[in-house]
């Protein structure tokens, strides 16, 4: 296991931040350090879904963010909404935009990483690149600002593999700052938390079919991006 000394200490403030709610969906702003769903151990019970279910007992998880990642998550309020949203994620109809502070100066202003991923089982929960049995994983990126020490990048995951953005940035030689699983000693010590944030999530409302965009401000640095394009065809 890659985390033998891991101690779960989820943040309590804010306890739960809602960005949007109606009869069919809920959108929350997950803090870094909180699990999306409960872990197997009793000490790992606290999570987004357990907190949400105290207020909305019927709500269910549609997708997940890594424990160390913060940002926008959507949940379903009923079974038809869950099916509709799940289908959007599976067929890649949703649009996602993340921001990350990464180690070093990313020289190429934009590009993509297309490397298949699979669980590194002896070192789980770590993932690794595997060209033989790995599942396809594609990330597009754009450099926002940079210096010799670090770069701020916008990340657009086309697929949604576990730890995809973290492993893909590592493959470029630029681990995300504060990443205790994949970073070097220097990049791990550069930040107190993983510098990865799910800033934007766009999807079709499961009942109205209206294209909706949900945003969460970056919790690190002073950069705040312009709103994402609302056109689902772009």
Automatic annotation (TrEMBL):
InterPro entries membership: PsdUridine_synth_cat_dom_sf, PsdUridine_synth_RluA-like_CS, PsdUridine_synth_RluC/D, PsdUridine_synth_RsuA/RluA, RluA_PseudoU_synthase
Tagged with keyword rRNA processing: yes
Protein's name in the database: Pseudouridine synthase
Molecular-function GO term, any one: 23S rRNA pseudouridine(746) synthase activity
Described function: Dual specificity enzyme that catalyzes the synthesis of pseudouridine from uracil-746 in 23S ribosomal RNA and from uracil-32 in the anticodon stem and loop of transfer RNAs.
Keywords: Isomerase, rRNA processing, tRNA processing
Residue stretches spanning the membrane: none
Domain Pseudouridine synthase RsuA/RluA-like: 24-170
EC assignment: 5.4.99.-
SUPFAM superfamilies: Pseudouridine synthase (SSF55120)
One Pfam family of this chain: PseudoU_synth_2
């Amino acid at each position: 296991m890659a985390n033998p000394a891991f101690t779960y200490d989820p943040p309590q403030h804010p306890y739960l931040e809602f960005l949007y709610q109606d009869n069919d969906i809920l959108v929350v702003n997950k803090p870094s350090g909180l699990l999306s769903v409960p872990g197997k151990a009793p000490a790992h019970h606290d999570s987004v879904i357990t907190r949400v279910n105290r207020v909305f007992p019927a709500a269910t998880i549609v997708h997940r963010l890594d424990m160390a990642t913060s940002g926008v998550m959507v949940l379903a309020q009923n079974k038809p909404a869950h099916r509709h949203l799940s289908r959007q994620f599976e067929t890649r109809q949703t649009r996602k935009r993340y921001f990350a502070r990464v180690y070093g100066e990313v020289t190429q202003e934009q590009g993509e990483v297309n490397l298949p991923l699979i669980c590194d089982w002896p070192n789980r929960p770590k993932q690794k690149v595997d060209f033989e049995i790995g599942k396809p994983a594609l990330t597009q990126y754009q450099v926002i600002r940079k210096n010799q020490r670090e770069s701020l990048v916008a990340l657009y995951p086309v697929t949604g593999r576990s730890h995809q953005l973290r492993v893909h940035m590592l493959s470029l030689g630029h681990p995300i700052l504060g990443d205790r699983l994949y970073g070097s000693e220097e990049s791990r010590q550069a930040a107190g938390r993983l510098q990865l944030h799910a800033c934007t999530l766009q999807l079709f409302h499961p009942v109205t079919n209206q294209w909706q965009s949900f945003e969460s401000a970056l919790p690190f640095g002073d950069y705040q991006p312009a709103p994402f394009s609302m056109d689902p065809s772009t």
